Amino acid sequence: MHPIQRMIETLHGEGRCPRLRVDVTQEQVVCPDFVVERHGESLIIDLDPEYPLDLAFTEVGVEADLSFGGFVTRCVFPFAAIYMIFDRETGRGMKFDAAMPESVRRQQAAPKPAPKPKPRLVAVGDEGEPEPSEQAEQAEQAEQAEIDPNLAKVKVDSGAKRSRRKRRKKRGEASEAAPPKAAPPKAAPPKAAPVEAAPEVASEPEAAPTADAASEAESNGASEERAQTRRAAFRVIDGSD
Questions:
Q1: Which SUPFAM superfamilies does this one have (predicted)?
Q2: Residue 53 maps to which CATH number?
Q3: Less Cβ around it within 10 Å: N or C end of the chain?
């Protein structure tokens, strides 16, 4: 059994996805022409066991139904055209130097550029310096920037969004903790003007009878007695009883 076939079957048995790097410029390779023009000596293929690959192994190499741009094509990749096979998740696998194209070999042998100084990311806001958890995350993002700039950019963007969400959350908590403002006191209704009571008119005491009134009464009584005496005299003269 070829080592490539053995590793593919082992990874499928563990539920993992084998990833192949293939030189599709070789004559025995069968795949769409646009794939050959686009990828040339460095085509990456994922043999995911969750897809209906109808995978088969022959003396020549590996056959499978693969989808390119939505079109499924039966492809054939000779073992001699496969120069790398590894686990898609862990990156562990095998490399076959004899099958590796010269352009790929030179690319891997080229010296790597000197690592750039790690940038220090600081979240700008009201809170000033980032929290320790944010600093650890930013350091990890800086390390990823040396490996994959595109991946690091995505992580930096997401980290900035999380920092903004944290600042908004802190502002919301501060506003909730502040005591609610007291409502302004309502103006008291205007007091009614007191109604002044009408002054009481003191009644004048009745005047006590004076001496003149007493004498007048006595004279009136005397006059009445004289009148009665005259009437009695008239009755005697007239002979009436």
A1: SspB-like
A2: 2.30.30.220
A3: C
- Structural domain count, the chain: 2
Cross-strand bridge partners of residue 65: 74
Q: Which residues pair with 215 in a beta bridge?
A: none
Q: In the beta sheet, which residues pair with residue 214?
A: none
Sign of CA dihedral 206, 212, 215, 220: negative
Residues 58 and 151 in one domain: no
Same domain for 81 and 143, yes or no, is no
Q: How far, in Å, CA of 241 to CA of 228, rounded?
A: 14
> Taking the CA of residue 114 as centre, how many other CA atoms within 13 Å lie in the half-sphere pointing to its CB?
2
Element (H, E) at 85: strand 82-87
Give all strands of the β-sheet with 82-87 in edge-to-edge order: 43-46, 18-22, 82-87, 93-95
Do 10 and 105 lie in one domain? The reply is: yes
pTM summary value? 0.46
Contact in structure between 45 and 20 (CB atoms under 8 Å): yes
Same domain, 54 and 144: no
Q: Does some domain include residue 226?
A: no
